[in-house]
């Protein structure tokens, strides 16, 4: 865990318009001063992210949300009371004083108050707690999000555009925050842009309305692109009943497989797997381990990553969303390989 000197130094780096990676309870963020357009531009450049994909602004506990947003619906206040600090991002109308760069040009703004103690300490000292730290996940665009400081180093190496990496251990939640759009609450209602640990039912219990799915004209959100959170090796998602036959056929084709499974394989069918990780656990534990597992499988040197599908229930929504996006490109490749055999 980093100490207060490191945190103070990191705040000074941010105040100078440079970038700092820091831990949050969801994933590590690549932070810059949200109100400094050149810091925001540096985030897009380092991540190699299209500049029309808005960033989330992280604020300190008790921050004045009216500074960032011109309209705060009653539902937003209730959700902040219950879920902040924590893994819920709210999209609200952006105040005109906030430069549009951080919002990818949208008239809205994404706000989140993280619960990780290092993130909170950084936010409390950065511009005396009155600033906002814009931070996407600290990974190359489209790649697997980092849940340790080591992952961030693996992503960006010693790139001098990254001024510091704060180490706060392994992120507790392990997948990115739930994103709820309340910027058109009066006309459209609450819209769930990205599932996460805070579920739709928990939101409905607080505001009395279940969030709806986004329509096709909704603002672009990188976490909502079909392929995202993806390893470099093609990955495919396979239902439990097809797992064994798929592995056998891949083996027969001379394919080296790295496996992420959720139920145990029959002992008599021991395959020669390049790497094998079994996560036989509840959704929260699975989420906590997911990205570290994908990174490990990605380093295995296998030809394909096979991921056993997890249950299709509410508790698994956030995990299933990430698995589907991780497997988006690889699915076709593996299916073609199987057709050939
Ligand atoms: O858990 C998290 O949310 C992590 C940590 C670091 O806080 N951050 C994160 O950021 O996942 P990023 O950039 O990887 O994903 C942010 C998502 C993007 O899909 C972005 O498009 C969406 O939030 N977003 C942010 N502001 C928005 C806005 N004004 N309108 C629509 N979507 C927005
Ligand atoms: Mg991301």
From TrEMBL:
It comes from the Bacteria. The keyword tRNA processing applies. Its EC number is 2.7.7.87. It catalyses: L-threonine + hydrogencarbonate + ATP = L-threonylcarbamoyladenylate + diphosphate + H2O. Keywords: ATP-binding, Cytoplasm, Nucleotide-binding, Nucleotidyltransferase, Transferase, tRNA processing. Pfam families: Sua5_C (PF03481), Sua5_yciO_yrdC (PF01300). Required for the formation of a threonylcarbamoyl group on adenosine at position 37 (t(6)A37) in tRNAs that read codons beginning with adenine. One of its GO terms (molecular function) is L-threonylcarbamoyladenylate synthase. Residues 4-198 form the YrdC-like domain. PANTHER family: SUA5, THREONYLCARBAMOYL-AMP SYNTHASE. The lineage of its organism: Bacteria, Pseudomonadati, Pseudomonadota, Betaproteobacteria, Burkholderiales. It is found in: Cytoplasm. InterPro entries: DHBP_synth_RibB-like_a/b_dom, Sua5-like_dom, Sua5/YwlC_C, Sua5_C, T(6)A37_SUA5, TC-AMP_synthase_SUA5. Belongs to the SUA5 family. Coiled coil: none annotated. This is Threonylcarbamoyl-AMP synthase. It comes from Oxalobacter aliiformigenes. The keyword Transferase applies.
């Amino acid at each position: 865990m980093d100490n207060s000197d490191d945190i103070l130094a990191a705040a000074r780096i941010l105040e100078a318009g440079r970038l700092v990676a820091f831990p949050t309870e969801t994933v590590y963020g690549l932070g810059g001063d949200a109100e400094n357009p050149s810091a925001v531009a540096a985030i897009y450049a380092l991540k190699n992210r299209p500049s029309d994909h808005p960033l989330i602004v992280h604020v300190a506990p008790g921050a004045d949300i009216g500074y960032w947003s011109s309209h705060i619906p009653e539902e937003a206040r209730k959700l902040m009371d219950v879920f902040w600090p924590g893994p819920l991002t709210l999209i609200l109308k952006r105040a005109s004083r906030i430069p549009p760069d951080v919002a990818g040009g949208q008239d809205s703004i994404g706000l989140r108050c993280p619960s990780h103690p290092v993130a909170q300490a950084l936010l409390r000292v950065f511009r005396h707690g009155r600033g906002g730290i814009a931070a996407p996940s600290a990974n190359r665009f489209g790649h697997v999000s980092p849940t340790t400081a080591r992952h961030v180093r693996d992503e960006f190496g010693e790139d001098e555009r990254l001024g510091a990496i704060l180490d706060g251990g392994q992120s507790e939640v392990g997948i990115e925050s739930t994103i709820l759009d309340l910027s058109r609450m009066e006309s459209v209602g609450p819209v769930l842009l990205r599932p996460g640990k805070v579920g739709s039912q928990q939101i409905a219990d607080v505001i009395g309305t279940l969030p709806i799915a986004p329509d096709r004209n909704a603002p672009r959100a990188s976490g909502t692109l079909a392929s995202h959170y993806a390893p470099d090796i093609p990955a495919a998602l396979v239902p439990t009943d097809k797992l064994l036959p798929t592995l056998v056929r891949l083996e027969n084709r001379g394919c080296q497989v790295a496996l992420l499974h959720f139920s145990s394989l029959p002992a008599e069918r021991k395959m020669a797997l390049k790497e094998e990780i079994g996560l036989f656990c509840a959704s929260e534990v699975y989420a906590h381990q997911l990205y570290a597992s994908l990174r490990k499988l990605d380093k295995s040197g296998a030809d394909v990553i096979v991921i056993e599908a997890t249950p299709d229930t509410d508790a698994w929504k956030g995990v299933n969303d990430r698995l589907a996006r991780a497997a988006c490109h690889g699915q076709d490749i593996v299916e073609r390989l199987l057709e050939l055999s």
